[in-house]
Specification:
202 residues, 22% strand
Length: 202
């Protein structure tokens, strides 16, 4: 299938005029219906042009004329919703997606604001990103409601059990210590360089 990749224009300032994406869809539908390979080639993004020569596009159009005709009917059918999207990729590999609404680009998804995953792979990708950022808030957003509730309940219980740390019984052996917390929790501590740190808790 011939993939048409359109580039959303960058928004440099508030006064920048953003083309109506419906015009691009209409132009593509017209070119596809006519089998106009040159027009389709000119609509490709610069990245797509680096991967496909004009002659290759002509061959694809010639080979898939019937399918392009079906595409032209599909994208121009009544009730079709046209959306313009842009993606920004940052130097650290994370990205944000934006959608054009009422002439302005608005954030659709951002790695710092995980959206609802539509596949297991997307959920795993979101999990990796929030773990890489050490983001507790992000982690809570990607967990299931039952797991999130269980973790939050455990943390509330732990916080309550630590209300009076001076009154807790500490079992210390050298540089290691274990503390039983009311509510069934246990905290393990370890002294490193003269400083006590939490090694584990459950």
């Amino acid at each position: 299938m011939l993939a048409l990749l359109l580039v959303a224009p960058a928004v440099g300032c508030a006064a920048t005029t953003i083309p109506d994406p419906k015009e691009a869809v209409s132009a593509y539908a017209d070119a596809a219906k006519r089998g106009d390979a040159d027009a389709i080639y000119e609509m490709l993004s610069e990245k797509s042009k680096r991967g496909l020569s004009r002659d290759e596009v002509k061959k694809l159009v010639a080979d898939e004329r019937a399918e392009l005709g079906d595409q032209a009917k599909a994208v121009s059918a009544p009730g079709v919703v046209v959306k313009a999207r842009a993606k920004v990729r940052y130097g650290d590999g994370e990205d944000a997606s934006l959608e054009l609404e009422d002439g302005e680009f608005r954030i659709a998804t951002a790695d710092a604001l995980p959206a609802g995953a539509r596949s297991p792979q997307q959920a795993l990708s979101q999990l990796r990103r929030v773990l890489a950022r050490r983001s507790y808030a992000g982690l809570m957003q990607v967990l299931s409601s039952s797991t999130r509730s269980a973790i939050e309940s455990d943390l509330r219980s732990l916080v309550k059990g630590l209300e009076d740390p001076e009154g807790l019984e500490v079992d210390q052996t050298g540089d290691n210590a274990t503390v039983q917390i009311p509510g069934g929790h246990k905290v393990k501590l370890k002294r490193e360089g003269g400083v006590w740190r939490v090694e584990d808790f459950d």
